From TrEMBL, chains A, B:
Domain of life: Bacteria
The protein, known as: Monooxygenase
Species of provenance: Gordonia jinhuaensis
Keyword Flavoprotein carried by entry: yes
One Pfam family matching this protein: NMO
Length: 383, 383
């Protein structure tokens, strides 16, 4: 494999693995893809530890870091601390969650020490840590990367990737100077827009090409090498994946959730604002059903909704781990529609090798389809 | 091009064009693809006239017919006539529609003579007409084809295609004995499920392969040859398209709607029950916005909702044609997310030629990506 981005980053396969788990980063990069560590849940000190561990284990292979730096969020510009933000969560919302947990046999209260997913200055501090390590790529998962990210990355000569869910956003990103655009379809786990991968990728490729020579990666529902081949046919230079790593041996996904993922079909996800305050796709569960019900309160803006949902769901995972049925019904995590094809636990390296093999088969299949094509093209026959 | 289905049907390019317009059927089939006439809005007599015209103009090229024969519908098995069905539409729904039209400056009433989209015995009669013509294919757009369709088609040696929006439905169809499965993603115009094309196609291909050697076509958002190449990479043998023909020179789409399609982005569609009673994707407009609003009545079951919405929207088209702004705001028609890439009016033949050319480019691009691949596969390098 050698799309230009492979040569640019020194990777063998244009397979980008977004993960919160350092072991997956190392395994993927060593197997020929590129691991990208999601930094959102780390403090700057924790991120430094994670990246130091990666540097010690990755054998010099390239890897990236993904920072969550949205353009707007509740409390922005005010340096509001977590406790103040928590105090803004309405009593109605707190009561809805504690009732929901109680209905599922969970009477103990979640701890209330979760950090907000975004806060003033956090992105800058995380980025400063990341740039102190030999990263090959920095990404922003939400919106146009803030100026400081683009500026610092340019200074360090490190490419900036940005995720988009709409053609119009891709145009904005390309003009803002990002180096890699990830066109993420509606079927993706985590934050996502409305347009499907099959439609979004070609339209983003075309729109971006009019502005600059910026590689586009396809994301959304991609868990196989066939889909990587399809993405390249659509004009992408590679694929950005997330869900598929959640059921690897290395991942730290809660075991009850892994079991649910392996059993889930592609119709068992839901796109909802009820986890972070912005639309994100996750496994359907008693938790998401409750938030979709007519008597549920409206989700709060980011990061308030996360300050409400994350501690509760983390607590649910702990209780589910003890085998309690109610907690297992509630348990959920972000995942894309590709979950329907995630049916076994493999090592992250084996997932990379499977991608490579399935990709090669798909290319062969496509070539076979054109093998006895007429010289000029099918339609020409009857022109 | 020569996927097995091309050889089976005697076509040059595995491009299936679903359309209600006989001119598009003829143009596509003559250009190397295969036109499939949607019979849903014709009486048996009208269908016979359409097919006779096609036979006279298509120069012996293959074409197909699509019958809408859902497994269940309101009034099924009771031979209820259209007037009786119409009488079941609640006053609240009628008032909602007339208020909506009035708010948009339309005071004249739509005519109330629309036939129901489905009715007892209609499928059989349409099919009988179709089989009296030299059709190469018969399709059912909704659910498992009824027994009579499978039986009569087998007798005549004509392959039966069926559209599915979920893997589980594909399995049911394969077991029921259909010959071609169309895996239609959520981004498709018209009736569609929740799973995207990028995810649905590979999982349907895998599931069907375990049952029988049945070709799968990809559908949903497909308006370019690149997407046809992607579909073949995913394991499909070709593509089933609909939206892309609505802006061809031959199509009978209402001119105001064509103008809206050309201007629309991929985010301007909505999946709603408010047109037919089952989920279908259409252009977002003042009409769909109104039905999505909290004060809208719940959509009625099929075919009642269509008996309410079709005459109203047909009337809207007529008034929009006179240039009235309110009617133009309401105007809508079924279309998929691919509408964002439908930016100019072309002849149907040119669309076929564009598909062929874009397909060839995409295959070349995919091959270039593997050109200097390591012999065994990328991941093997570091195994």
């Amino acid at each position: 494999m050698a799309t230009p981005i492979c040569r640019q980053l020194g990777i063998d396969l244009p397979l980008f693995a977004f993960t919160h788990c350092r072991d997956v980063v190392v395994a993927v990069s060593k197997a020929g893809g590129i691991g990208v560590l999601g930094a959102a849940k780390f403090s700057p000190e924790e991120l430094d530890q994670e990246l130091t561990w990666i540097d010690e284990h990755i054998g010099g292979r390239p890897y990236g870091v993904d920072i969550l730096a949205p353009a707007t969020f509740e409390g922005q510009g005010t340096h509001t601390d977590a406790d103040e933000l928590r105090a803004r969560i309405p009593q109605q919302h707190r009561a809805f969650v504690s009732d929901l947990l109680a209905e599922h046999g969970i009477s103990s209260a979640p701890s209330d020490t979760t950090r907000p997913l975004v806060e003033d200055g956090l992105g800058e501090r995380l980025l400063e840590v990341a740039f102190a390590h030999p990263i090959a790529l920095v990404a922003n998962a939400l919106g146009v990367p803030p100026d400081y990210m683009l500026r610092e990355a340019k200074k360090s000569g490190i490419p900036v990737a940005a995720l988009v869910g709409a053609k119009e956003h891709a145009i904005k990103q390309a003009r803002a100077g990002v180096d890699i655009i990830v066109a993420q379809g509606s079927e993706a786990g985590g934050h996502c827009g409305e347009v499907s991968t099959m439609v979004l990728v070609p339209e983003v490729v075309d729109a971006v090409a009019e502005i600059a020579d910026i590689p586009v990666l396809a994301a959304g529902g991609i868990v196989t090498g066939r889909q990587m081949a399809a993405s390249i046919a659509l004009g992408a230079q590679g694929v950005w994946t997330g869900s598929v790593w959640l059921t690897t041996e290395e991942a730290e996904t809660a075991p009850a959730t892994v079991a649910k993922f392996l059993a889930a079909t592609s119709r068992d996800t839901v796109r909802s604002k009820a986890r972070t305050g912005k639309y994100s796709r996750q496994l359907r569960s008693a938790w998401t059903d409750a938030w979709e019900s007519p008597n549920a309160p409206s989700p709060l803006p980011m990061p308030l909704q996360g300050l409400l949902s994350e501690p509760a769901l983390r607590h649910v995972d702990v209780v589910a781990e003890r085998g309690e049925a109610g907690a297992r019904e509630l348990a959920t995590y972000w995942v894309g529609q590709g979950v329907g094809m995630m049916t076994k636990v493999s090592s992250a390296a084996d997932v990379v090798y499977d991608f490579a093999e399935d990709f090669a088969d798909a290319v062969e299949r496509t070539n076979a389809a054109v093998a006895d094509e007429q010289p000029v093209g099918a339609g020409e026959l009857n022109r």
